[in-house]
Amino acid sequence: MDESSGIIKEIKKKVQELRSRGFNLYPSGFRRDITVEEVLNRFGKMDNNALKEITDTFTLAGRVMSIRDFGKAVFIHIKDGTGKLQAYIRKDRVGDDDFAIFKFIDIGDHVGLTGQLFRTKTDELTILASSVVLLTKVQSPLPEKYHGLIDVETRYRQRYLDLIVNDNVRHTFILRSRIIQTIREFFDKENFIEVETPMMQSIPGGATARPFKTYHHTLGMDLYLRVAPELYLKRLVIGGLEKIYELNRNFRNEGISTNHNPEFTMLEFYVAYATYEDLMDLTEKLFLYLLKKLFGQLTIEYQGNTVNFTTPWPRISLMDALKDIGGIGENVLLDNKALIDLARSKGLEIQDNEGIGSVLARLFEHTVEPKLIQPTFVVDYPIEVSPLSRRKDENSEIAERFELFIAGKEIVNGFSELNDPDDQRERFLKQASLRDSGDEEALFMDEDYLRALEYGLPPTAGEGIGIDRLVMILTDSPSIRDVILFPQMRKK
């Protein structure tokens, strides 16, 4: 029998003993009048003499995180959702019955207690309990002998344990919530309207990605979890909602990595009568707002790199980035065969029917993207890999599109929107041809969206920001699984 099963056996014995005495292990509710954080904020700087002047008693509740038993007295630490505080339970103060029950307490149990504050000889702020009650009895011990949860697999599968024992994880998800709240605050101040569009779509569109497919029995039709809300959001711009955003989930039936999860959170926003250059300016403004509001400064540390968000950020074309950062000679970039040979020499699987725009984009991902540590806009993508973007007037093979890279990760994708229904139809047809040839990520033909375009999409720019990757960077997290509460996992 291993140690953990032995501990579980001892806990089960206590459960049986308490139940045999008629003790309620899971009483209904408990009214506390203060949190640990409030105690620390109000009294954390007071010395013992000042605390003796306070005659009030306080009622707290929390999970027991440590126990030191001295026979007729016990020191414990309790932890609630705001912090951790020491408590001192003495037999002569709480009474024989309550103290006898307390002997059945294990680390992980929830308790409620009432008492006054004082400082111990080691100067630790402590509550001297006058009463203590068991609120919830655990039946499994906290992991790793209560000293922490290190195993990554267990942390992701049993996030509740991760949150209990790893304070840094709790802080990451609290900060994630604040980041999302601050983003909404920014767009509300900029007079955007938040909207919601369908999660289940009859035609998945808005991004080149393989969708999840399901079936609606009453309607007798296939439906897809959305890969992006883009085409629905642009329908709303056509309808006259000129500044809109949606912050919600997307689903893509693709691989799992440190940067990818099949279910992820995306912010998309659209502005009528704007261009992709306007959105680059707005993106800088958004990030400055986030950094100042959350951290009070424009530099952060991410995985050993100092990232400086001071604006303006560099703007470089994809071709110049391949030359200046990727080290690819201009003669190679202008020679399709040499370019394909180079890509294959770097281990990229290039299909015989793959267009040169796709090869350029994939070489960029391989040779340039990991080197873009400081915030950098890369602009002027091939139209071939930008099926929903507006063409540049001066070069129809280039899209009015940008991507923002930070710490070697793509964080933002934005462009001036294609609003010519005839051009969009031609691009859908090309995507349909790719799909017929086996590309499961190619776009579907969407006749309803084409019909909507015929009613006039004004000149519009739109942008998507990967919230999970953004949170990774702002919380110095190495994996996307560290910032998603319940990441997708293989079956055990």
Brief write-up:
The protein is of the alpha+beta class. The chain has helices spanning 3-20, 36-43, 48-52, 91-94, 96-102, 152-157, 159-165, 167-189, 230-238, 276-295, 318-324, 330-333, 336-345, 356-367, 421-436, 447-453, 467-474; strands at residues 58-69, 73-80, 83-90, 110-119, 125-136, 193-194, 200-201, 213-216, 221-225, 243-251, 263-272, 299-302, 305-308, 315-317, 376-379, 391-392, 395-399, 401-406, 409-416, 460-466.
What attributes characterize this protein structure?
about 500 residues; alpha+beta; OB fold (Dihydrolipoamide Acetyltransferase, E2P); BirA Bifunctional Protein, domain 2; eight-stranded mixed β-sheet; five-stranded mixed barrel; 17 helices; elongated
Written overview of the protein:
Helix 13 (336-345) packs across helix 14 (356-367). The strands form five sheets. The chain has an eight-stranded mixed beta sheet with strand order 6-10-11-20-19-18-15-14, sandwiched between helices. The protein is built from 17 helices and 20 strands. The model has no long low-confidence stretch (mean pLDDT 93). By secondary structure, the chain is α+β, with helices and mostly antiparallel strands. The longest helix has 23 residues, at 167-189. The chain has helices at residues 3-20, 36-43, 48-52, 91-94, 96-102, 152-157, 159-165, 167-189, 230-238, 276-295, 318-324, 330-333, 336-345, 356-367, 421-436, 447-453, 467-474, and strands spanning 58-69, 73-80, 83-90, 110-119, 125-136, 193-194, 200-201, 213-216, 221-225, 243-251, 263-272, 299-302, 305-308, 315-317, 376-379, 391-392, 395-399, 401-406, 409-416, 460-466. The protein has two domains: 3-141, OB fold (Dihydrolipoamide Acetyltransferase, E2P) (Beta Barrel), CATH 2.40.50.140; 165-326 and 368-482, 2-Layer Sandwich (BirA Bifunctional Protein, domain 2).
